[in-house]
Amino acid sequence: MNTVYLNGQFVAAQDARVSVFDRGFLFGDSIYEVIPYYRGVGFRLEEHLQRLSHSLRAVRIDAEADWIAIMDELVLRNGGGNLSVYLQVSRGNAGKRSAVYSDDLEPTVFACCNPIRDIYQDGADQVQGIRAIVVADQRWLRCDIKATGLLPNILVLQQARDHGADEALLIRDQLLTEGTSSNLFIVKHGVLYTPKRSSEILGGITRELVLDLADENGIQYQEIDIDYETLISADEVWISSSTRAVVPVIEVDNQPVADGAKGPLWRQMFELFAGYQRRLMTGE
After folding, report:
1. Of 224, 267, 216, 232, nearest to 246 (Cα)?
2. Which positions are annotated as active-site residues?
3. How do residues 139-193 score in pLDDT, each as one tens digit?
4. Of the candidates 85, 115, 145, which is a domain's last residue?
5. DSSP annotation of 211
């Protein structure tokens, strides 16, 4: 993906330059979104833009732009089709390093594209279940803001990898919140459960799609508090994200989830998701 957007211009990626005094670089003082585009059309664009506006308001970055026009043009310049757009807005460049900022800073707006893989092409039998560990959630208390300060997420994900796991599930005040870059689901007696939305989790767009598909297809679900014992005793555990879709977790803290196999409700949701994504990617 050779063309990026930076502060009003579409330029070759190697020519894009941001000041070393940009607050996004110095302080992580920035927010972001990742929006899939299927056949050149933004996926759940309204929901993504609502979350973008929420994040901007929450951190008091005053940025106004025709986001849809920017992203549509960027996708077009990168060949169209099935791509994801990464959009980042920082508070801007103050010309110096200072924790104090002025309200008249001009935000830095950057966007780039990456290809989207057809996750469902090979079918449910080819999807590998993942292993997870549970670790303390030491992030700040405004996880509903999609901010770029992801160092805690990076560190616990590396901790998981050091333990031979693929993901870290985060726990705070004895309740599960989410994964490092994913939302959490469990299944018990045929009912789908996910943690309640709060300022301590990011309201994932894919999470909402899972719940919509469940509702449309008669799958019972509830948003509840999930503690460690409930997680460990679940019949199925899943995670969801925009890049991985819905993935089964077959082991938590070296203990198999149920019989350690991919569960029947996950398979059903996988097929529902597969059909949904295939329609978006092919127009069938």
Report:
1. 267
2. 146
3. 999 999 999 999 999 999 999 999 999 999 999 999 999 999 999 999 999 999 9
4. 115
5. H
